[in-house]
Every structure is written in C-alpha cells, then in structure tokens.
Amino acid sequence: xxxxxxxxxxxxxxxxxxxxxxxxxxxxxxxxxxxxxxxxxxxxxxxxxxxxxxxxxxxxxxxxxxxxxxxxxxxxxxxxxxxxxxxxxxxxxxxxxxxxxxxxxxxxxxxxxxxxxxxxxxxxxxxxxxxxxxxxxxxxxxxxxxxxxxxxxxxxxxxxxxxxxxxxxxxxxxxxxxxxxxxxxxxxxxxxxxxxxxxxxxxxxxxxxxxxxxxxxxxxxxxxxxxxxxxxxxxxxxxxxxxxxxxxxxxxxxxxxxxxxxxxxxxxxxxxxxxxxxxxxxxxxxxxxxxxxxxxxxxxxxxxxxxxxxxxxxxxxxxxxxxxxxxxxxxxxxxxxxxxxxxxxxxxxxxxxxxxxxxxxxxxxxxxxxxxxxxxxxxxxxxxxxxxxxxxxxxxxxxxxxxxxxxxxxxxxxxxxxxxxxxxxxxxxxxxxxxxxxxxxxxxxxxxxxxxxxxxxxxxxxxxxxxxxxxxxxxxxxxxxxxxxxxxxxxxxxxxxxxxxxxxxxxxxxxxxxxxxxxxxxxxxxxxxxxxxxxxxxxxxxxxxxxxxxxxxxxxxxxxxxxxxxxx
Length: 568
Ligand code: TEU
Prior knowledge:
Blueprint lengths: L12 E4 L1 H4 L10 H6 L1 H7 L3 E4 L27 H13 L3 E6 L9 H6 L13 E2 L26 E4 L4 E4 L14 H16 L4 E4 L27 H4 L5 H13 L7 E5 L5 H8 L8 E3 L20 H14 L7 E2 L9 H4 L7 H13 L4 E5 L20 H12 L4 H11 L2 H4 L30 H6 L4 H14 L1 H5 L1 E5 L6 E8 L2 E8 L5 E2 L1 H4 L5 E5 L7 H4 L1 E2 L4 E7 L1
Parallel strand pairs: 1-2, 1-11, 2-3, 3-7, 7-8, 8-9, 10-11
Antiparallel strand pairs: 4-6, 5-6, 12-13, 13-14, 14-18, 15-17, 16-18
Helix pairs in contact: 6-8, 12-17, 13-14
C-alpha cells in the first residue's frame, strides 16, 4: 500500500519577520508577544505552518542572521518563556512552527568564535576557517587575503585578525564568520542544539544558506567578475561542495530520525540546480523535504542584483516549467515570490499602482496553483508594496548600506545607486506589517525601527478583512483550495501557451479532475483562445466578474487570473 503523502504537501507556510510583524512593548521592534497577539489572524487566514526568521541573541549586524547564542531568545524579542507560550498557542490553533537554523556561520560574538579568536592554539580555532596571508605577502597588504573571494555584503570574504596575523572566512558580513563543518565537533554541537529545539516542541527548520557549508577544501582563487572586481564570486567554491550530501544525511540521522514525519525541513540554497535539488529532496535520500531555489528571483537581474532588468515572462515560465518537471517524480518544490530578502512581488512582477489588487491576486493564484509547498511572506496577503525610500538614511539593511558605500567610493552616481536600492533592496520586505490605518499601522505604539509604508492608510489588514474583494480574502481562498482540492496539491503539472509573452497558463491533473490555470502578466487584454474551450467548466478562482460568453472566456483582461475545473 502506497504510504500517505507527507502532511506538508497540502500545507501553506507563512513567514514571519519578527522585527517587523507586531510590537507588544512599544520599543518599535516586533516581538514574540506581538506574534502571540496576532495568532488568531493567522489561524483565520488558514495557514498551516509559521516560519520565524531568527529571534536568537544577536548583535543584529545582519538583522539576526548573526547569532551569538543558539539556545535563547534575544531580549528585544522576549524570553524563552514568551517563546514557549507562543509555541503552545500556535499548536492550540492547529498550526506548526518552524525555526530559522543559521549554521553556515555564527556571530563573531558567539562564545565559539570568541574562543577561536583567542589564538591559534585555542580549543575551537578549527571550528572556523583560518588561513595565513597569501604566500609572500604581508598580513593586511592589499591582495594578501588567502583567496580573492568577495563577500555577499561587499568587500573581501576574508577578515584579518591582527592578533594572530591570520585571516578568517566570512561569506557574509565580517561579523558572520563561517563555521568549519569539516570538524565533527562543530557538527555534533549543532545537532545537539537542533535536538534541543525539537525537544522543546518546534516542528522543523528553515536552513539558512545550508548548501554553502561544504567548501572546496583547498579554497582556490576564482575568476574576477566585473560586477565584483577586484573580487571573485565565491559561490562556485562553496555551492553544494563535496561533502554536502554526506553532511545533510548525517544531520537527518542525528537529528530528525524517528520524528521526521511530523517535521518540515526546507534548505535555502542560493545557486542550487534542479538536478541537485532532486538529490536533496528525494525522500529516499533522507536529506531535506524541499529547498528554496533562486532562479526566478534572479531573472530581473544582470551581472549583479543591482543591475536591474525587466522581467521577461518567457524566462519565468521556462524556469518554473523546468522546476515543475524536474521534481515531478522525485523531490518536491517550495513556491515563493517573497521573503525578507526579496522586494515586494506586486511592485516587482505586478503593478503596484492602478492594478495593485488584481495583479497581487493574479500573482498569488499563479504561484499557489503550482505543484509544491507555497510560502506567504508577511504582508504579501495584503498586497503590500515596495516602500518610497528617499535617501540612504532611510535604509537599514547591511547589504544595502555596504553596497552604497562601495559604489559611491567607486565613483558611481548616488541617484543611480539609490534607484537600484529602491527597486531591489531587502528593506522593501522589512517595513512593518500594516495592521490598520493608524499612525504606525498598528505595528507599534513607539517609533518603528524602520518607517511604516505611508500607503498603510489604504493597505492594511483591518480594511482588507472588511472588504470581501480584497487581496486578503483572495489569499484565504487560495489556501482553502489547497486544503480542499487534492489536484492543487498533488496534480501533475503541464505548461500551456509556453511561447506566449503575456499569459502564464498551465493545467493540473489528478485522476479525472483537471484544472486550467491562467494569469495575464500585462496591463492590456491578452488572448487565451484555449480558455474558450473551458467556458462551460466550473470557475474556481477569479479576480474579475466571470466572463459572460465563450468569446469573453477567450480573452484575459489586464492582470486577470482564472482557475477552471472539470471532471472527466
Ligand atoms: O540569505 C542568503 C542569500 O542568498 C541572500 O543573502 C541573498 O544573496 C541576498 O539577500 C540577495 O540579495 C540568507 C538570509 O535569508 C539572509 O537574510 C542573510 O542575510 C544571509 O543568508 C546570511 O545569513
């Protein structure tokens, strides 16, 4: 008898960015008690799993992705007691909670690194990547770094430790030294920490840049890329390294064995390919349940994320089509438009002006009807948009601030740099959640750590809940459909109209049930002749009044979305 499908194949995950979700004590930063107070809203929305971005003690150099203590809660977010109360309340409402696991690197203020930095002889020196200056060069001299790799946050990926004259590796900020997973003591310490959270009742992990933990041991130089000069892109030497599957299978044995069925694990994997993802997510290999891949969120970027290009729908369809086909038999996809690192999708791939509501609904419909587990990022269900950042003083994100400083130092025009930051900056995702039309959108009674988007006067949960035609009710309907229509979760995927530059169309089939999904990615009417053939079928999802005639069925209005159902 075929084993039942894993629960997470019919689940929808909601990502909470705690700094920006709900502030309960007026300090302008969201917290755990704020989340607790808003759980009924999430239960009403119908989501099954909450993913919490990091809430652990952290100097907040990279907004919590630089952890100084893995087994506690940063006071700005609350206490372990607050956490336990929130977790119990999540479970009481039939939802699950996934924590963010950030173990490619720690904070440089984590006791492990403080010990490692104490000197070459320290017990934990080999818990990190230390190297002497490049042969024949003096420590600190330009180009003396052990490799020419660039950090994701600008500058070199190596930081000199004056005391020892050695450099340590940091693929992200200099306050995020990379852990050395080659060292079994490092792995065991991390597995023990993960078991501690699972024993506390947590239901799984979102694993931060987990495909970067196995490095190419001899750490070779790379070709200098124009966008990163004088540095090289480190990714080819750290992406899915030689021992990555060994490490993830060991983690599964040491941490998840015996309780994997109740858990959800998703690996964030920049640069991962379909072929690699099939290996990572094949249940027979016992590694992770799904991965976050980045192909579709890099399609509007040239040499770097700041080299902004228009999205071509053909590219988007080709990418999604390849991932749907590639993981059809083995493995499983995650589905996302947004997270705390990506600009708001309605501003990016939709129209956040005249057609904000319709394009937000269309984007949600097209994504949620694919085969895979959908992720809703806080505020996406409201159709929240990018924010009207003016000068660099409006930004908070280290990636943006470092890029701005580096670009200006290189002589770039400030307005050009700011234009790219306004479009692609991560702070767009991090403006406070818009609960109501009050001064700070009901997020805080204090001064928010990042300004609330002024359009919260119109775009907020209170108004959306009162408006049955809102993006919010549309998302609630999509989530309900995944729970009630098995073809949405488990049906086969077939791309239609693959060469159409404005219409995204595909079918899902499960047994004798077939769904036909269409989305118009343009502000003009678009022909969809195939839809005329479905005129007599049930219209499950729409963001316009139903077409009246077969002919009208054959045309999609601006940003229109439809999902038809027929049973053979
Ligand atoms: O992100 C990894 C990652 O790929 C992003 O840094 C990405 O390159 C960038 O945001 C695109 O602009 C994870 C976390 O999601 C991110 O918030 C952290 O900053 C990063 O890892 C380091 O922990």
